[in-house]
Amino acid sequence: SKRDPIVVARKVTRSFGGINAVDxxxxxxxxxxxxxxxxxxxxxxxxxxxxxxxxxxxxxxxxEFDGKPLAKVASHKVARMGMVRTFQLTxxxxxxxxxxxxxxxxxxxxxxxxxxxxxxxxxxxxxxEITKQADVLLEKFKLDTKRDDYAASLSGxxxxxxxxARALMVRPRLVMLDEPMAGVNPALTQSxxxxxxxxxxxxMTVLFVEHDMQMVRHIADWVVxxxxxxxxxxxxxxxxxxxxxxIDAYLGAH
Length: 254
Ligand code: ATP
Fold this sequence. Notes:
Elements: E1 5-16, E2 19-30, E3 34-38, H1 45-52, E4 60-65, E5 68-69, H2 75-80, E6 83-85, H3 98-106, H4 114-120, H5 127-140, H6 156-167, E7 174-178, H7 186-201, E8 205-209, H8 213-219, E9 222-227, E10 230-235, H9 237-240, H10 244-251
Parallel strand pairs: 3-8, 3-9, 6-7, 7-8
Antiparallel strand pairs: 1-2, 1-4, 4-5, 9-10
Helix pairs in contact: 3-5, 3-6
The protein binds adenosine-5'-triphosphate (ATP).
């Protein structure tokens, strides 16, 4: 079948002092699939996420999302274009309610601003639509009973769910999850996995960073391996996990 990647990146570099945190020659993220980005600590995974989503600026290189050039586009515009990400440490706002956090997610939508979303509650006629969309998502993520609670009262796993739900408020085509399983208790692990699989079933593309290889084997269609800023292997999980370069990359880290 013809390759139709949702993201294509070329010669992307980012260094900090003397360290080449990211030095990617070529990277493609397959559309409508779940791709795992793996690699030892310090491999550059989070830095690559930051670059692709406009939270950091590359030293060089460019990339396209859905055929549109996206290098050096600001993060809120990246989100509006349909590419959202979550963070290793969630950016859920504890002093806001669950619903207010969801509204903030909608602030990344065209025509909205953070100020309007947060303080004025004016939505240019879209308030009802946004609230309804948030309620549907909260029910789906089983956070509807927490709707009016402060986000600070949520467990670590519930915060991960809220962050994922909030990211979906922009109706993205690509969802990037940075260590979605970290800090999630076993009771919520299975449901998080199901949510990630559902994103794909609903037509989205997923890219996630993960250290848990069992999870990678379980849900990834494709695996990209980074080590020392470079892509050292990619392919289906069963093939990549047997690759000597991959094994070396991990052993090299210990
Ligand atoms: P982990 O699995 O531990 O999250 P990672 O693969 O996400 O690691 P990065 O966090 O992207 O790796 O880090 C890549 C390299 O860049 C590391 O050597 C790190 O110390 C360095 N680095 C990342 N961000 C910065 C920064 N803001 N300032 C200085 N160095 C940085």
